[in-house]
Amino acid sequence: MSIATKLRRIRKTPPEGWDLIEPTLEEFEAKMREAETDPHEGKRKTETLWPVFRIHHQRSRYVYDLYYKKEAISKELYQFCLDAKLIDGQLIAKWKKQGFENLCCLRCIQTRDTNFGTNCICRVPKSKLDAERVIECVHCGCRGCSG
Questions:
Q1: Cα separation of 145 and 47, whole Å?
Q2: What is the pLDDT of residue 7?
Q3: How far, in Å, CA of 39 to CA of 45, rounded?
Q4: Of 51, 78, 76, 75, which is closest to residue 62 (Cα–Cα)?
Q5: Which PANTHER family does the annotation name (predicted)?
Q6: What is the C-alpha separation between 61 and 63, in angstroms, rounded?
Q7: Helices 18-37 + 75-83 axis angle, to 10
Q8: pLDDT one-digit tens code per residue, 71-80
Q9: What is the pLDDT at residue 10?
Q10: Which of 63, 69, 123, 135 has the smallest CB count inside 10 Å?
Q11: Nearest-10 crossing angle of helices 18-37, 50-64
């Protein structure tokens, strides 16, 4: 579903400043379509979704940075992106909390998705892990988002 389709669905005209972020969001949408149609022969079942998670994270982080860090977009435009579901509001809510500033996806902090009822391995600080082993999150392919 393209951004134009999502905009038609909510039936609102975009607020001022939309023309500044629209090309980048369209680019993310094109990458998302490409990631969804990529062949996944030879990959594990979970690996096929990793590019989708990565692009979803990048798109949400782009708007988050514009609004909270650079203050380059208005509150109305930010709210419009949330209402149109162009960005993940729950993920952004976690980024505002201490210790979750670099969280890769919400599945990594859900304890019900792990065998022992704990966080994902990517949430363990790299200083506490074995330096030689490469650790990848099963859910999204993250190699460590805790710092």
A1: 18
A2: 63
A3: 12
A4: 78
A5: PROTEIN BUD31 HOMOLOG (PTHR19411:SF0), PROTEIN BUD31-RELATED (PTHR19411)
A6: 6
A7: 30
A8: 999 999 999 9
A9: 66
A10: 69
A11: 170
| CA dist list (Å): 113 to 40, 117, 137 | 23, 7, 12
For residue 102, give every residue at least 6 positions away whose Cβ sits within 8 Å of its Cβ, in sequence order, or none: 95, 145, 146, 147
Instruction: Report phi then psi at 33, rounded to 5.
Output: -60, -40
Tokens encoding 145: 């988002």
Q: Distance (Å, rounded) from C-alpha 140 to C-alpha 98?
A: 22
* pLDDT score at 1: 63
Which string of DSSP letters, residue by residue, matches 4-33? HHHHHHHT----TTHHHHHHHHHHHHHHHH
Residue 52 has pLDDT above 70, yes or no: yes
Q: Identify whether the C-beta of residue 95 lies closer than 8 Å to the C-beta of residue 103.
A: yes
Q: Each residue of 87-122: pLDDT tens digit?
A: 999 999 999 999 999 999 998 898 887 778 888 888
Separation of alpha carbons 136 and 78, rounded Å: 32
- The pTM (predicted TM-score) of the whole model is 0.88
Residue 120 tokens read as 């994902």
In 92-135 the beta strands, taken as DSSP E runs, fall at: none
